[in-house]
Amino acid sequence: MRSRINFWSIIGGIMLLGGLLLAGTVARSATVPMTVPPQPQEIVPACSPITTDTTWTTGNVYVVQNCALIVQAGATLTIQPGVVVKFLNYSTGLGGAAGLRVDGRLIAQGTADQPVVFTSLADDSVGGDTNGDGNSNGTKGDWYGMVLTNGSETILDHVSVRYTSMSGLHNFALGWNQAQIEVRQGARFTLTNSEVRDGGLLAVYLNGRGLTPTIRNVIIMTIPFINQHQTCSLPTPI
User: Fold this and answer.
1) What is the DSSP string of 106-145?
2) Which H or E element spans position 71?
3) What is the pLDDT of residue 132?
4) Would you say 138 and 95 are in contact if contact means Cβ atoms under 8 Å apart?
5) Which of 29, 113, 152, 163 has a CA 20 to 30 Å removed from the CA of 185?
6) How confident is the model at residue 187 (pLDDT cuts 50, 70, 90)?
7) Per-residue pLDDT tens for 45-77?
8) How many whole angstroms separate alpha carbon 61 and alpha carbon 39?
9) Domains, the chain, ranges and CATH?
């Protein structure tokens, strides 16, 4: 007795299997950072300027509160995968914003499973309840953001930048807030496989002539992504 074979069932099964394999491939190859589990981590105050080559190590939460962290010229701050850096303003008035200024080198290279996260002290979704105030989320303007100055080099790969910037924020070391990441004339800047989200101003501001940053595979969940001086160029796709 012959067995009857349903041709369309076989084709449908092959297509379904192919779809599942393709979906698995896409998931494994995704390079934009995902949410880090909110497990408690070691808390390290981080307001002192970086004057020599320094490494921030996996397993720690570094807290920049009521100050501007400055990576001084000639020094390199290296941030390992999985590190969380949390900021909080002292006030939104003159000089009260907490932020990061790079005059030397900043190298923050996470992975898809362990991104480096720059966020608000109120953001309990990464690093746990660092300030011990109960469950909370960050909001835009909780901290100033980053300023990358002339002669500096910043490499951000597999990072998440969250809850930065708001019109009117000011810090004496940083000036008036213009963007979540402000790249000034003469700075070298790379941003890849990353996200910039939930901020109050531009994600990236190229503030100078002749800037040629590398910006690739970046997810933006904020208002307009980038504003650049008319003589800047973007040699690689966003």
Assistant:
1) EEEE--SSS-EEEEETT-TTTTS-TT-SSS----TTSB--
2) strand 68-71
3) 78
4) no
5) 163
6) very high
7) 999 999 999 999 999 999 998 889 999 999 999
8) 11
9) 34-228 (2.160.20)
